[in-house]
Amino acid sequence: MPDINIKIRSSNVFKDGVPPDDFEGDAEIETERLKFPWHCEKGIVDNMKLLNKEFNQIRGLNPVKIFITGPPASGKSSYGLELSAYYNIPLIEVQ
């Protein structure tokens, strides 16, 4: 059976701010260049509102408000309930 000696290395992509082992040059400059610009250093939970805002802005999603009006017994509540259930949005009724 042949003696197989395999050396597995991780990619340099996952080494935040660490120059490759075979790098020749100024290590400090290369370290700064390779630092990943973390957007949410505190984590997703602490930045949930910011992430939601950016997600909506980038995709051009704007909040939609639907106002249903009409005479009594014209089906406003029925249509409101159907829209609320279909789009999974809250329904606010004024009595």
Describe this entry's structure for a reader.
With 95 residues, the protein is mostly helical. It has 2 domains: 8-60, no CATH class; 64-95, no CATH class. Helix content is 33%, strand content 0%. It is built from 3 helices and no strands. The chain has helices at 27-34, 48-58, 76-87. The longest helix is centred in the C-terminal third of the chain and has 12 residues, at 76-87. It is elongated and about 85 Å long.
* Major sheet description: none
Topology as H/E string?
Answer: HHH
Provide the helix percentage. 25-40%
Number of E-state strands: 0
Identify low-pLDDT runs. none
This entry's quaternary arrangement is single chain
Distinct helical segment count: 3
Strand content: under 5%
Structural class: mainly alpha
Radius of gyration: 28 Å
Inertia-based shape: elongated
- Overall average residue pLDDT: 79
- The tally of domains stands at 2
Tell me the span between the first and last alpha carbons: 84 Å
Give short descriptive properties of this protein.
mainly alpha
Strand and helix map with partners:
Layout: H1 27-34, H2 48-58, H3 76-87
Give me a quick take on this structure.
The protein has 95 residues and is mainly alpha-helical. It has helices at residues 27-34, 48-58, 76-87. It starts with 26 loop residues before the first helix and ends in an 8-residue tail after the last helix.
